[in-house]
Amino acid sequence: MRLVLTKLAYLHASSAVHENRNPGSFLKFKKNHHIHLDNLYKKVYKSLEKNLPSFTKLNLKEPELNENHFNCLVHGSVWEPNILFKLQNNSEDELKDVIFINYHYAYYGSPTIDLQKYIHSIMLENCNEAEKDLVEFYYYKLKDLLQRMVYKDKIPKFEEFWMQYNHNRVFGLQQILLINPFVISGKLQSLDVMKGIPSDDLCDEVFKNQKVIKYLNSTLV
C-alpha cells in the first residue's frame, strides 16, 4: 500500500516539475474523461434506491480543475487491476516495485483524485480511521520529492492539501458506489467499466448482496 503511494508521489511530483519547467505541456490532458461513470451511476441508482431504503441520491459530478490547487498529471484510475506488482527474488510476500498501467483516463488535475480512488479501493473497512494517516504519508513523500526536484512553485502545507483532498471526495464516492460493490459481490468481471452498461439484473444481484449492503451502510454513514 505504502509502496503504491510512494510511486504515486513520484509520478505526481515529476509531472508537476515538468509542467513547472515547461508550461502548457499537459494542456491536452485538461479534460474530464469520466463521462462513462455518469452512465454507470444512472444504471445502478435504481438498484441502490430499491435495496437501500435510506440511500439518498448523491451528486457525483466531478469538480472543475482548480488552478489554485496543486496540480499534476493524474493517472485517473489507480486501483488493483491497473497496478503491476514486482516481488523480491525468492519471495512471495515482499514487494520490490509497482508499475501503473492503462493511462487512458490520465488527465491534468489534483493528485488527491488518485488518492481518493486508490485509498477507497483498498480499504473496504474502517477507511476513515486510516485515511488521514495514508494521505499524510503520501504528502510528505510528495513534498520531499518536489524539494529534491527543485519545484519552483508553492508547495501546499499539509492542512491545505488535506482540504484539497476533501474537496475531491466525490472521486472516493465514485469508487465506493460504482466499483466496490461489484468487487465485494464477486461480480467485477461481469461489469464493463469502460462502457458502464451493467444489466438491470446484474445491478439488482449486486446491490441485494448482504455484504454489499453492510459495506454501503457502514461506509456512507
UniProtKB/TrEMBL annotation:
<dbReference type="InterPro" id="IPR004119">
    <property type="entry name" value="EcKL"/>
</dbReference>
<dbReference type="Pfam" id="PF02958">
    <property type="entry name" value="EcKL"/>
</dbReference>
<protein>
    <recommendedName>
        <fullName>CHK kinase-like domain-containing protein</fullName>
    </recommendedName>
</protein>
<dbReference type="InterPro" id="IPR011009">
    <property type="entry name" value="Kinase-like_dom_sf"/>
</dbReference>
<dbReference type="InterPro" id="IPR015897">
    <property type="entry name" value="CHK_kinase-like"/>
</dbReference>
<feature type="domain" description="CHK kinase-like">
    <location>
        <begin position="1"/>
        <end position="148"/>
    </location>
</feature>
